[in-house]
# Entry
Amino acid sequence: MATLAIDIGGTKLAAALIDSERHMHQRRELPTPASKTPDALRSALQTLVAPLIPHARQVAIASTGIIHEGTLLAINPQNLGGLLHFPLVSTLEMLSGLPVLAVNDAQAATWAEYHACQDETSDMVFITVSTGVGGGVVSGGTLLTGRGGLAGHFGHTLADPHGPRCGCGRIGGVEAIASGRGIAAAAKDDLAGCDAKSIFARAAEGHAQAQALITHSAHTLARLIADVKATTDCQRVVLGGSVGLASGYLAQVQASLAQLPAVYQVAMSAAHYRHDAGLLGAALLAQGGHF
Ligand code: ADP
Ligand code: BMX
# Structure
């Protein structure tokens, strides 16, 4: 019997069965409902996981938001259509009748990515640039989650005191500028109303404003990575999320970081497990009994 892994992001929900050899089966995806009330998320999760439950012995969830004592608390509710909190563990216990474990999505992805580079380092950081900007830290081989679950929330560190207000209430945070939602919110004129995916497509066609929006995000990420290097002395930074993995984005971040003094330089790579790092990391944590 496998682990049923679920990844709850601001844009998409994913689920898959992960066997004891860490192979993934029956991966499914649905859009994340944008609703203030928990019912829409509960019903989307039910649709997503129903066919997988009969094959699972436990459930492992990687979810956006601060995960504290099994509950999702949004630091930026705008990423979830205004939803502030959601009883993750009890909902999945009710839906599946199985034991359920839950952790923040970026922290889960960090743990999977650490397993892909642990021969080379015991100190690494993962950053997802997706609907929001999330992250996680492995220090001395240990995943830092923090007593309240907040560790690694790099998207909520300051990028520009004159920048836009984040849904968390703070002005000028990294997420408000660099995330998929941040890129889309800054779009004007013919790009107004476009999402980050279409802005990347327009940039590839040579659209000047689209290119400038992406460059602004990449520069913001590079400055964040210099701060992360200074605070953690990590040996590697791994980038994930659909914006982080988009063609040319990592190269722009690396080029921008290369302009900074040598002490802030750090090896960077794209997520080894691509869009599945959260699913795999949650399953790994559950299978290793790390919750
Ligand atoms: P989630 O936040 O649910 O984990 P993603 O990692 O897919 O989901 O991130 C969603 C964000 O990434 C959205 O802002 C979306 O517009 C953007 N996006 C999705 N696909 C691409 C792509 N191919 N290139 C650039 N941006 C993308
Ligand atoms: C936000 C925050 C983080 C999350 C990050 C990436 C919420 C709902 N989420 O900073 O907990 O890790 O976004 O999430 O406050 P994603 O949906 O972009 O993958």
About this structure: The chain has a mean pLDDT of 97. Residues 9-12, 32, 130-131, 180-181, 195-197, 200, 241-243, 246 surround adenosine-5'-diphosphate (ligand 1) (CB under 6 Å). The longest strand covers residues 24-31. Residues 129 and 231 are 20 Å apart (CA to CA).
